[in-house]
Amino acid sequence: MMPNSSISSMINPVPGGFYKMNTKEKEKYIEEFDFPFCDEASKYEKITKIGQGTFGEVFKAKDRKNPAKIVAMKKVLMDNEKEGFPITALREIKILQLLKHENVVNLIEICRTRATLDNKYRSTFYLVFDFCEHDLAGLLSNVNVKFSLGEIKRVIQQLLNGLYYIHSNKILHRDMKAANVLITKNGILKLADFGLARAFSQCKNGQVNRYTNRVVTLWYRPPELLLGDRNYGPPVDLWGAGCIMAEMWTRSPIMQGNTEPQQLALISQLCGSITPETWPGVESLELYNKIELARGQKRKVKDRLKPYVKNPYACDLLDKLLVLDPQKRCDADAALNHDFFWSEPMPCDLSKMLAQHTQSMFEFTMQSRRQGVLRQVNTPWIAYFFNRKTAVHEGLTFYRLDLRSD
């Protein structure tokens, strides 16, 4: 058993006489202090940056002692250093330590840089993960990457397996999008970026949850969050799964709004008007009467997707995932039992197809997506969804694309 003095020193690592030290003594103490159970980041050598966003930066790196070991290092963004280690990062670490599944990214360790005069005696912390060669957004951005129907089934099956697991453990991801779906060279899918994730609970005795609705990247955000719902659950992730599934065929996000009202308008054009008839209780949501919602829109999920998807079982599953009313939206368990996964061609291994592509593909490294440029300006898909009154080229609208998470 660890002695009480050791436990005390870890909880309160600064000695009682620290504040009596002069500046030089304090600097020396901080520089030599060894964070318990936290290796130095210098054990890894950064190779290249593979991601950047509001969360910080992600680097591909290798272990200096074992160069064959490749990892991903996610820098912890210190928003306000006076408040200490960010609570969002602590939550992410706690959740990732809980979740251990083939289809969830694996957190190896937390490491930090040594505090020195050069960095003003402030350590930088990194979350270290198993490295995955691609993210789904990067793969879909490459016209040379072609998924067969069986391979698409395997991608979505693994995605739903990951969601079923985290929801069974009472965790919401809350940032489902193609860039947060990693795929290894062996074709194993990993749900990643749990920076917005949180535990959820089923309320009893009429109580309601009060979660923030400022989550999920706009293009993948479900209608209940756009209308101000704060008592939500797993269906928010299933909406994102539906958007990602459709993207496997369209090769770009299917609803690319610039603002929340605009995103709601695009949703209405695809899924029909948002009314109490189609969604009982929607009128109780905070923003329902504050936003002008489209009226008279018919549901067109299957009609709009059929030219791209073609497979009737896939269209049916998408129709069950992209449902306005979260209470009627298909859950991960029901989705995994859908005929889409149990009809020919069956889900098949991705590794053979991925072996044809030796370079890693990430959204960050794909210039067209990062700069918000539509890769295929002649695709009729975009014309379906954007306001033609502001079109500037052959009936298409080019909105400024916003990839930031809210």
Automatic annotation (TrEMBL):
**PROSITE patterns given for it?**
PROTEIN_KINASE_ATP, PROTEIN_KINASE_DOM, PROTEIN_KINASE_ST
Please give an example of a GO cellular component term from this record.
nucleus
Instruction: State the CDD domains in the record.
Output: STKc_CDK9 (cd07865)
Is Repeat tagged as a keyword? Answer: no
Recall the GO molecular function terms of this protein's record: ATP binding; cyclin-dependent protein serine/threonine kinase activity; RNA polymerase II CTD heptapeptide repeat kinase activity
This protein's source sits in the domain of life called Eukaryota
Any matching Pfam family: Pkinase
Domain Protein kinase, first and last residues per copy = 44-341
Concerning SMART domains, the annotation shows:
S_TKc
Where does this one sit in the cell? Nucleus
Detail which positions bind ATP: K74
- Which coarse location class describes where this protein primarily resides? nucleus
The Swiss-Prot or TrEMBL record describes its family as follows:
Belongs to the protein kinase superfamily. CMGC Ser/Thr protein kinase family. CDC2/CDKX subfamily.
PANTHER family the UniProt entry points to? CELL DIVISION PROTEIN KINASE, CYCLIN-DEPENDENT KINASE 9
Name by which UniProt lists this protein: Protein kinase domain-containing protein
Species source reads Apolygus lucorum
